[in-house]
Amino acid sequence: MTDYLILRVTAKFLIPIILLMGLYVQFHGELGPGGGFQAGVIFSAGLILYALVFGLDRLSDAVPIVALKVLSSVGVLLFAGTGMISVIVGGEFLDYNLLAEDPVAGQHLGIFLVELGVGITVASTMLLIFTLFAAQNDHV
Amino acid sequence: MLRVSDGAQLILIILLPLVVAPICYVLRSVRVVWLLTLATALSCFLMSVGLLLVVLDTGGFSYHLGGWAPPVGIEYRLDLLSAFVLLVLTAVFFVCQLYAGSLTVASSSKEVPPAIAPAFFAATLLCIAGLMGIVVTGDVFNLFVFLEISSLATYAMISLGRDRRALTAAFQYLVLGTIGATFFLIGVGLLYAETGTLNMREMSMLIPDLVDRQTAFTGMTFVIIGLALKLAIFPLHLWLPNAYTEAPSVVTVLLAGTSTKVAFYALARMVVSVFGVETVVETPLPRLLLIVGSLAVLFTSAQAILQANVKRLLAYSSVAQIGYMVIGLGLLTTEGLAAGFVHLFNHALTKTGLFMAVGIMMLVSLDARLSSLAGLGRQMPWTSAAVVITAFSLVGIPGTAGFISKWALLDAALAQEAYLIAAVVVVGSLLACLYLLRLLDVMYFQVSEKPRESITIPIHMVTALWLLAIACIWFGLSTEYSLSVAKLAAASMMESL
Questions:
Q1: Which residues cross the membrane (chain A) (predicted)?
Q2: Neighbours of B5 (CB within 10 A)
Q3: Which residues on A lie below 8 Å from B21 (Cβ)?
Q4: A48, B44, B234, B420: least CB-packed within 10 angstroms?
Q5: Residue A132 contacts B, CB cutoff 8 Å
């Protein structure tokens, strides 16, 4: 695949933009269209494009499978942990009002953390599925 | 002692497995993962006992997620019925995890290789979290989400079977399960279009006025057919025998004791609590439920007699037992519902125990063909004794748990003067007698052609099996915690309309 000059150059140009777009959708999610799920898919799409053009090994060097497994769990735990904080404080599960002194700031913080958890899990799970399927093909 | 509020306990019981699952997934040591899962299962069980006691005292409570009051927010409602089913689920889950401890022993870890055992435990935790979520939620869309969580985990667990046919079975269940879930979702969408709410209680107040509207009626039909697929009601049961047969025993025991039970709960909840008895009586549904339930009992019991594979035999018998529960629901009386739910309880104990015993015998016989179990009655006297006890309970011999629920069902049918239904119940028990006698005949009265090497059975498996076998006898003699609670639950469910 390294022979295709046009593909390589365009991919190198596009991948940072795709990743940036993913981060934008992630962190702008509570104010406009977007959110963790969409952001995770866009972000992982950038990395999958990288693997398609430059090979799976290069992607595995950058993001090892173990890291993907851990990240996919960390995202879920971040989501659940955010919800649990309000239970520990004495409120109800996922009640963001209790996360900060000011309820509005609490809602901001809560939705931010939860969406971040979703984003991390979706991105790493997408990559995990892709990597596992692609690696399986290598062995045949 | 730490005092946790009831609401926090309700959310913790679902959250705990949901949080432990990803932790299990990243850990490597099978033993650590197993202990973590077992501890989670035990805590869930203790919490559900606590919740049942609270509900028996107060009659139930509601929990608002995120502090958003219903009907805007998602509401979790715990009443007597959901607390009862929650207790059954967590008890079966705990015993199944005890049984799954055999995966930490080298001799029997062939079933699920140690490399993927942590993922297996993570999947069981996700599955049970989803199932418990279905039971406690008071929001129909949330019910769909939990249905998908548990189903996806189940598909993955079934595909772990050693045989490659497990992949076909998992795929078949994946396709049919997804169709079921989609039907449910379409139904919920139509009902939402008519009522403008997803909250069960709100919906139940609006539906009686809307029943003449085509959209609401279609929505109800879709919901019922979707859940019927998940429940494996007779003509929609084709995924179940394959899934139960090809899945590893550690998975089959969990499925047999939990997933169809929860689907039955969901169906009863939608039909009785959301649509309402007055609404449903006007429709052909009760008659239909009685017909398919009876057909399930007669037809699949007869099919079970013809099976050559012992797991498949028990799987067909499960479909027949689902038929009994559906008959109980179809009667649409308090007694019928109570009989359905007490059968849910007793059958969860009985069938999980039987599948456990078969799983243990398969360690020796190495395959599930009925003929390969020949002579095991002599070689494994204790396990075979447990098979006898659970088989008696499945038939409904007095003194075992199965008798209580069959009797309750007969009673409910006779109270409605539904003599044909009562006859079906009796004939179904006779058919069950036939297929279980085939199993016992092979085990006790036939001699194996080739000598088998004797292996030590992991203590986890034996303990789990005997816990259930003793429970089958205990709940056949004392109905204080099974039938009485089921009756109270059914009564409160019929009243709360």
A1: 5-25, 37-56, 68-89, 109-135
A2: 13
A3: 76
A4: B420
A5: no
The domain total for chain A is 1
Spatial separation of the C-alpha atoms in residues B233 and B295, rounded to whole Å: 10
Residue pair B82/B28 in contact (Cβ under 8 Å)? The answer is no
Q: Residue A107 corresponds to which amino acid?
A: Q
CB contact under 8 A, B66 and A80: no
Whether residue B65 and residue A84 make contact (CB cut-off 8 A), yes or no, is no
Q: Does A117 touch chain B (CB under 8 A)?
A: no
Q: Say if A95 is an interface residue toward chain B (CB within 8 Å).
A: yes
- Chain A residue closest in CA terms to B16: A80
- The pair of structure tokens assigned to B476 is 């056949």
Distance from CA of A85 to the nearest CA of B (A): 12
- pLDDT tens-digit profile, chain B (497 residues): 345 677 888 888 999 999 999 999 888 888 899 999 999 999 999 999 999 998 888 888 888 888 788 878 888 888 889 999 999 999 999 999 999 888 888 665 577 788 888 899 999 999 999 999 999 998 999 999 999 999 999 999 999 888 888 899 999 999 999 999 999 999 999 999 989 889 998 898 888 888 788 888 899 999 999 999 999 998 888 899 999 999 998 999 999 989 999 999 999 999 998 988 888 888 888 999 999 999 999 999 999 999 989 999 999 999 999 999 999 999 888 999 999 999 999 999 999 999 999 988 888 887 788 888 888 888 888 889 999 999 999 998 888 898 999 999 999 999 988 899 999 999 999 999 999 998 898 888 888 777 777 777 888 888 999 999 999 999 988 887 888 888 888 888 887 64
Tell me the C-alpha distance between B229 and B234, whole Å: 9
B18 touches chain A (CB under 8 A): yes
Structural domain that includes position A79: 5-139
User: Looking at the whole model, is its pTM more than 0.90?
Assistant: yes
Distances, alpha carbon B18 to alpha carbons A74, A79, B133, B253, in Å: 12, 11, 10, 21
- Count Cβ–Cβ pairs < 8 Å, chain A vs chain B: 46
Interacting residues of A30 by C-beta distance below 8 A, sequence separation 6+:
A108, A111, A112, A115
CA distance B405 to B347: 9
CA-nearest of B202, B90, B57 to B140 is: B202
Nearest by CB to A92, which of B18, B22, B66? B66
B22 upstream amide cis, omega within 30 of 0 = no
DSSP B396-454: T-TTSHHHHHHHHHHHHHHHTT-HHHHHHHHHHHHHHHHHHHHHHHHHHH---SS----
Confirm if A69 and B26 have CB atoms less than 8 A apart. yes
Grouping H, G, I as helix, E, B as strand and the rest as coil, residue B496 is coil
Contact check, Cβ <8 Å, A96/B66: yes
Residue B49 in contact with partner chain A when CB distance is under 8 A: no
